[in-house]
Amino acid sequence: MILFADAARKISKNLESIRDGKRPAMVRIGRFTESQLAEINQARQAQNFAPLQATIIFKGFHIYRERCIENDYIHRGCSNTNSVRTL
Hints:
By secondary structure, the chain is α+β, with helices and mostly antiparallel strands. Helices cover about 45% and strands about 15% of the residues.
């Protein structure tokens, strides 16, 4: 996976928005490599799922709920701007 240069900032901003009760934007944070995308789509095709596109879109609700709240990461980083490095 190739992350865009501003991915960490976008991820942190979305996690902070969720923490603050705001609705985060859907943001582009990176893309799969050609080989990753081919492997993923081969597995999806075997299960009759539609293929994915290369661009990775991030919103953050699942990560915030599962990591920041349920796994208690909120006390280890999700509440500050360095949350991406913690996750």
